[in-house]
Design goal:
The complex is a heterodimer. By secondary structure, chain A is mostly helical. In chain A, 69% of the residues lie in helices and 4% in strands. Chain A has a two-stranded antiparallel sheet. In chain A, a hairpin with a 6-residue loop joins strand 1 and strand 2. In chain A, 46% of the residues are buried. By secondary structure, chain B is mostly helical. In chain B, 40% of the residues lie in helices and 0% in strands. Chain B starts with a helix and ends in a 30-residue tail after the last helix. The chains are: A mainly alpha, B mainly alpha. Chains A and B meet through helix 1, helix 2, helix 8 and helix 18 of A and helix 1 of B.
Chain lengths: 456, 52
């Protein structure tokens, strides 16, 4: 039944694209985020729906869509350079077969991020992309949140639709992504036109935000806790009643801590005492290895270069308290450990040039959103109040993602490039609108001057 | 059960959103300028700025 329903939904989604080709772009965003072919077990598994939606999205835009308003921006150029660079490192990779496996999905994510802004030519399209991304990630989030409330959480044990630990179904990744969509949810709740703000939208949106916050608890991913903390601090920038907000957070934390499972608080305590935690200590050892590796391979070792690492970790156990503290040291060995950080992932795989391009791409996104925010925040006219909050939301989302990626290897996660695509689209769209406005303003004085002359 | 609930709720909303999108004219082109809100006035020149 589920299989049939999902298949029917995907086919109907693709069929609607024949009426409005932009829907194929949305279909790709949906398929690439949720991967319904993994949840289903029949028809969807057999046909390559991801590839089909990819081709339809491109083909629809190339053949049917109106392209006069599409612009290629500087950041899309950066994505193109990164794509070419990754292609080159794949050809010379330390582990060519493994590198090809990763390249197989990375090029699609990068190409799509470069392409999406070309299709985001109206306000409604930008909103629709944000809505589809949010609702789709929301499916995984709601699933995880209910299971967490029902007691099914735990590090590496929270099952999200599938027994698969890849893409958004990996605990640490969904923790970072769930928190990073919260600003978008708030924006949609206030400025949405597909689902205009009313009590139902507020109810669903609030429940979705609550579910997002539950994900780091359910997955027990420490990264998620950092992301939540960052988002709470960033919210201070735009919130009006700061004292009330801080008081509510203080009360919320005091109420929530006793309700958290012990396994969760134990795991969060290892953020402070990471010496006794092999996962965290191995991470630090891999980062040191990567820095050394980059000295010999400044242009990167290609995708999955981490497979060549061998690290030795010293773990310190501390027992007792006060004067009776005893410490013991033990050794642990590990090899082929993943980077567990997007920054070191870029450095190890794409070298210093790759890391520089990637950082420029990220930081320029933060700056562009800041510029939009500055330009539009004081405008209060009809149709002029959604831009600054959206730029603010996209900036916060990316910043949360960047902090999450300090401890998770998500440099090439397609979701990140969807966010970047949305940012590029918004930037390009508003640039065009503003230049049109300037032209209109230039035309108006001339008109009024003409009227004045003609008047008796 | 939980899986089905999360999928049904989300896909119901996705379907409704897509249905509404298909029917909206402003999906492919923004409303014409005369229907769109008037652009904001140009910012006033700063004090001390050079005059043309």
């Amino acid at each position: 039944m589920l299989n049939l329903a999902l298949t029917g939904f995907v086919l109907a989604f693709l069929a609607l694209g024949f009426r409005r080709p932009y829907l194929w772009v949305l279909a790709y965003l949906y398929i690439d985020s949720l991967a319904p072919q993994k949840i289903s077990w029949g028809f969807l598994k057999v046909i390559p729906i991801s590839l089909i939606s990819f081709i339809l999205a491109f083909g629809g835009w190339m053949l049917i869509d109106y392209k006069a308003n599409s612009r290629f921006t500087l950041r899309q150029g950066l994505i193109l350079i990164l794509l070419i660079y990754c292609g080159l490192t794949t050809m010379t990779a330390d582990f060519p077969e493994d590198a090809l496996v990763k390249w197989d999905w990375v090029w699609k994510a990068l190409l799509f991020a470069m392409f999406v802004p070309l299709t985001l030519t109206t306000r409604l399209r930008i909103e629709a992309a944000a809505l589809i991304m949010t609702l789709t990630v929301g499916a995984i989030v709601i699933n995880g949140a209910i299971k967490t409330l029902a007691g099914g959480g735990g590090y590496g044990t929270l099952r999200l639709f599938v027994d698969d630990n890849s893409g958004l179904y990996e605990g640490s990744i969904i923790s970072a992504v769930a928190i990073s969509i919260i600003p978008l949810i708030f924006w949609l709740m206030k400025h949405g036109t597909i689902f205009p703000p009313d009590w139902r939208v507020k109810l669903y949106g609030s429940a979705l935000v609550f579910s997002c916050v539950l994900i780091p608890i359910g997955t027990q991913a420490r990264t998620g806790l950092l992301c939540v903390a960052l988002l709470m601090v960033m919210a201070l920038r735009t919130i009006k009643r700061r004292v009330l907000y801080l008081s509510l957070i203080a009360v919320g934390v005091m109420v929530a801590i006793p309700l958290l499972p012990k396994s969760y608080t134990d795991r969060m305590n290892t953020i402070e005492n990471h010496n006794a935690d092999q996962s965290a200590s191995t991470r630090v050892a891999v980062w040191k290895w990567t820095l050394e590796y980059a000295k010999d391979h400044p242009f990167g070792g290609g995708f999955d270069a981490y497979r060549g690492n061998q690290v030795r970790v010293e773990l310190t156990d501390t027992k007792g308290s006060g004067n009776n503290v005893t410490t013991s040291t033990r050794e642990a060995f590990d090899k082929a450990r993943a980077y567990h950080s997007a920054y070191f992932e870029m450095l190890g795989e794409q070298g210093w040039p790759g890391l520089l391009i990637w950082l420029t791409l990220m930081v320029s996104g933060l700056l562009q959103m800041e510029l939009i925010r500055g330009r539009w925040k004081k405008r209060t006219g009809p149709g002029e109040t959604w831009q600054a909050p959206l730029a603010n939301a996209l900036q916060q989302s990316l910043l949360v993602y960047m902090v999450g990626s300090l401890f998770v290897g998500i440099a090439f996660q397609p979701f990140c490039y969807m966010l970047i695509g949305l940012q590029c689209g918004l930037w390009s769209y508003l640039k065009r609108i503003e230049s049109q406005n300037v032209q209109q303003r230039a035309a108006r004085p001339a008109l009024s001057l003409g009227n004045a002359v003609a008047a008796p | 059960m939980i899986d089905n609930f999360a999928l049904v709720v989300t896909h119901g909303l996705l379907a409704l959103a897509l249905w509404r999108l298909v029917q909206r004219d402003d999906l492919d082109t923004d409303p014409p300028a005369d229907e769109a809100p008037a652009p904001a006035p140009l910012p006033a020149p700063k004090k001390g700025s050079l005059r043309a």
